[in-house]
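dumping this here before i forget
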Amino acid sequence: MAEERNIYDDALFGILQNEGQIYPFLDVIFGFLYRRTDFYKIQHDENDKMGFPMGMAGKIVQKAFKKYCDIAMENDAQQLKKNQVLKESEIPLPVATVEVVTSEQGEDKLRETNAAKSHRGKVIQTSEKKNIELTQTDFQKNAESYNGAIRNNYSWAQTIKDLDVRVKQVPQNVILGKSVKVDIKPNSLTVRVLNEEGWTTELDGELSFRINVEDSVWTLFPGEHVHVNLEKVQERFWESLMKDEPKIDLKEIDNSQPMEDLDEETQAKVNELLYNERQKQLGLPTSEQKSYQREKPDPSCSHLLHHPFQDLLIVLSYF
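structure:
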């Protein structure tokens, strides 16, 4: 699908060159949607055949942005891995040394060497079998497990509104969506992949909390993984994706919330606090002080506001 959309690149690149910057370019795109489509028309009831329910258009834009943002982060992570491999390959190997021993010492030296090799082999074998336990600090460094965790065959990340799940056991020959079955239910998630042995279940379990099925989607990255985006019903951070998996410590994750995710009233309050802080730093009146100055009466006219014969004086002035 992405390759088919490349046919529009020349036209879009021409618009971008003409506008010169990203924001005017996006303004052209959304302006077109406003003028020529029903993208911004709001459906007030089920009988409306045009437009979308309140807030749906914004979610569509967010999902389109998130789709390619995830692809970019995936490519960046792969590039970092390649760079790390290149760095490790550049480390010079230690120079071999040869020790010359006499015939009398040879037999004893050979026994010591064989014993050392045997011991070293056991140490290496033990270290390879030992599982390295990852901490939440390790999870936070990886975009695939940010605010989440890495499990045996999948990883998950989250914001306060949604979750991103990556099921990694996808064979190289799985390149079509029909080779994957994803069953998203309000309380459970199942991912099955078709391989040479038939359909295998890669992920199946009961979710920790309810999700919104209509706003949840999945995408196949051919030969790599299945990406599932789940929209939460309740805005909260989860301690685990599945009920039967180990819980993470919510005190160690990033609990901050982007401004655009806040409601209008909260955004207005935050903006007011930021404005007042800047005003204080510049030695200027805050919004509250400005409001007080507007409501405070002029001292030179205060005697008129409380004059007992104010109304009579106004009437007499007409005669």
